[in-house]
Specification:
With 216 residues, this protein is mainly alpha-helical. It is 63% helix and 0% strand. Helix 3 (58-79) packs across helix 5.
Length: 216
Amino acid sequence: MEEDIALGNIALDLIGHARFLLTYAGTAWGKTEDDLAYFRNEEEFRSARLVEQENGDFGYTIARQLLFSYYQYGLYTALLESQDETIAAIAAKAIKEVEYHVDHANQWILRLGQGTEESHRRITEGLMYMWPYLDELFEDLPLHEKLAAEGIAVLPSSLRAQFDERIAYVLDKAGLAIPDVKQARSGQRTGRFSEHRGFILAEMQSLARQHPGATW
């Protein structure tokens, strides 16, 4: 029960980050955060496939949380220096919460990796399953290059070395090896090759689409 609450609080933090970013993005098109969250079609989203993977086993959930939290920590740390004041302010608020997400993931990776034979097996399987989706997080796309040149964003590739160093350290402490698995084919954040996104969006958007214009 305690862990259900902890993961729920992390999810609420991430929803808060998304709301800030969607609200700001909507100002460019005269749209609200609800317009962008609930009334875009599947192919219009640009989420990374790592975050679309199913929860399944607890080991899978923690493996995904570990990788994504460390990625977010590096990203928001870099965005503190953004020339866009709004993005820098969002990063400053988000980084405080992501520090907790990293700590939570660290605690569990150590418990599972150093725990029983069964817990070690399950977190190892979780890492093996999630690892193929890492490269996509650090792929430089034309939009990244444009915004990085303007000092607004950062090149994802510039975050990789520090990410690898941090992940290698915590996995070593947990007695876990870096998975030797082939990376999944890149979808370049277009939704290609994503079998889970449509189901996630259908669940998230169903109520808003059944009652368009409703507020809550």
